[in-house]
Automatic annotation (TrEMBL):
It comes from Cinnamomum micranthum f. kanehirae. Residues 280-463 form the Glycylpeptide N-tetradecanoyltransferase C-terminal domain. Pfam families: NMT (PF01233), NMT_C (PF02799). It comes from the Eukaryota. It catalyses: N-terminal glycyl-[protein] + tetradecanoyl-CoA = N-tetradecanoylglycyl-[protein] + CoA + H(+). Keywords: Acyltransferase, Transferase. Its EC number is 2.3.1.97. GO terms for cellular component: cytoplasm. This is Glycylpeptide N-tetradecanoyltransferase. Gene3D superfamilies: 3.40.630.170. Belongs to the NMT family. Residues 32-46 have a biased composition (Low complexity).
Length: 470
């Protein structure tokens, strides 16, 4: 694809989250990446709110961008052996090239000159106008929260809907070096009501020895009553334009479907912390030949942690945790490139957003081990007894002195003490070594990791991946 054509291509993000199996999907078509249930949910859909791979297919549009966006969505439901019409035009690894070691590892296409990027915002339908959403403003943050809470993803059976807190949104949207004008809203001109939102944040991801600047795009949401207005393709074009103006052309993203071409394929696992509630709300089911009392006993955890010197991370720990993480990440082919500012932002504990714990040697006061999880609850729809499902997602864990099995078991205990209902983890990094023994259950469906406009010559094992996306 030529540079000029790529400059005009749609940046399309489809982030499907499998609530009951907790598998995230993010699809980004044009060099920007986001960051993080039932299969094939689509929180960014402009359809009827039901979850399916084609839910975000735009209507017939007024130009090539809408056609590209539609074709990309159509490609999501194409099985193996069929052509991926959109992806075959993109700078991504192609199935036909698998096994061909003649291609160099690294960027597939050179960047487009910034002068070729459209300088003015795209036109919206006459009734609507662009707005930059200041997430620091309590009023604006509440507007974004309410839009997502009432119009974001639901599972296939309309039983669960993600409920990102305002604190989570501020955390996710304001990493170091973020661009405020990448937090894009659409308002009704007459009433000024916020009816759509899309966001982007910058990231640095290391691939082997190369640190690559990327854009993470997330939270594409259109009000349910406006899903025939073709707002999504225009929003996709606009966030693409703003990302390109910052000279970013690579992306990392995940999807629950096979596209050209996965860097690696992972599985989500989940560990029951409150099995009775999970069964009562139909998040999980009672096993064959199992009673409720036996199930509760099976998943029961000790009342206190076992590791001496384990405590909550504090601001003074940022330098030590950064050193620990950077050393840990160095063993993986693909991993974040975190500095102290990143560690402070992403891992310093924030109530009901991210929890981090470390082990400090009682003798030397050296920080030897680290573990963390982030919080992403779901609203439980239509249940008379419960309104919220509180889920923890394993983030980054480093074991140097404390056995990883013991460290994670202690983290499960800490999550249980904080009233989480379920704990989820991917089989990336060293996670596979503790999943079965700590009674995690295998999720349904796979999570495929991709790099856009960056070729990795050989597919990776999940254990070679050091990256967790929100």
């Amino acid at each position: 694809m030529s540079g000029a054509a790529r400059c005009n291509a749609a940046l399309y993000v489809n982030r499907c989250i499998f609530h009951r199996y907790n598998t995230e999907v993010l699809i980004d078509m044009d060099g920007s990446h986001p960051s993080s249930g039932s299969p094939n949910q689509n929180p960014n859909s402009e359809s009827d709110g039901k979850s399916n791979a084609n839910a975000n297919t735009p209507s017939e549009g007024d130009g090539s961008l809408e056609i590209l966006a539609r074709r990309a969505q159509e490609s999501l439901s194409i099985g193996n052996g069929k052509r991926h019409a959109f992806w075959e035009t993109q700078p991504v690894g192609q199935f036909k090239d698998l096994g061909d070691t003649s291609f160099p590892e690294g960027p597939i296409e050179l960047p487009t000159p910034i002068s070729e990027v459209k300088q003015e915002p795209y036109n919206l339908p006459n009734l609507y106008e662009w707005t930059t959403c200041d997430i620091d403003s309590e009023e604006t943050c509440a507007e974004v929260y309410n839009l997502l809470t009432n119009n974001y993803v639901e599972d296939d059976e309309n039983m669960f809907r993600f409920n990102y807190s305002k604190e989570f949104l501020r955390w996710a949207l304001r990493p170091p070096g973020y661009f405020r004008n990448w937090h894009i809203g659409v308002r009704v001109k007459a009433s000024k009501k916020l009816v759509a939102f899309i966001s982007g944040v910058p990231a640095r991801i290391r691939v082997r020895d190369e640190v690559v600047k990327m854009a993470e795009v997330n939270f594409l949401c259109v009000h349910k009553k406006l899903r025939s207005k073709r707002l999504a393709p225009v929003m996709i074009k606009e966030v693409t334009r703003r990302v390109h103006l910052e000279n970013m052309w690579q992306a990392a993203y995940t999807a629950g479907v096979v596209l050209p071409t996965p860097v690696t394929t992972c599985q989500y696992w989940h560990r029951s912390l409150n099995p009775k509630k999970l069964i009562d709300v139909q998040f999980s089911r009672l096993g064959a030949r199992m009673t409720m009392s036996r199930t509760i006993k099976l998943y029961k955890l000790p009342g206190s942690t076992a590791t001496p010197g384990m405590r909550k991370m504090e601001l003074r720990d940022v330098p030590a945790v950064t050193r620990l993480l950077r050393n840990y990440f160095s063993q993986f082919v693909v991993a974040p490139d975190f500095d102290e500012d990143d560690v402070e932002h992403w891992l310093l504990p924030t109530e009901n957003v991210v929890d981090s714990f470390l082990v400090e040697s009682p003798e030397t006061h050296e920080i030897t081990d680290f573990c963390s999880f982030y919080t992403l609850p779901s609203t439980i729809l239509g249940n008379p007894n419960y309104s919220t499902l509180k889920a923890a997602y394993s983030f980054y864990n480093v074991s140097t002195r404390t056995p990883l099995l013991q460290l994670i078991n202690d983290m499960l205990i800490l999550a249980k003490q904080r009233d989480y209902d379920v704990f989820n983890a991917l089989d990336v990094m060293h996670n596979e070594t503790f999943l079965k023994e700590l009674k995690f259950g295998l999720g349904d469906g796979q999570l495929h990791y991709y790099l856009y406009n960056y070729r990795v010559r050989h597919a990776l094992k999940p254990s070679e991946l050091g990256l967790v996306l929100l």
